[in-house]
Fold this protein.
Amino acid sequence: MKTPKNPFHPGEILLEEFLEPAGITQAAFAEKIGWTRARLNELIRGKRGITADAALDLSEALKTTPNLWMNLQSTWDLDQASRRRKAA
């Protein structure tokens, strides 16, 4: 299976593919899933990653699977690790 050349951070996918098309603000979504606005914003800005608990929260709220979020995160993490190794 091929990995994307430039994978997107899961937070970017959350914002651009789920929140913006649905017209949901970060504040409203954070409240809906029981997160702080800061936690959600850090995820969207790529400052925080997806944990198993976060994947469960997102999948429940967005009617996706937790695997979607975990796979996006692992693809991102592997790409970042590969870039660091190439730069070293």
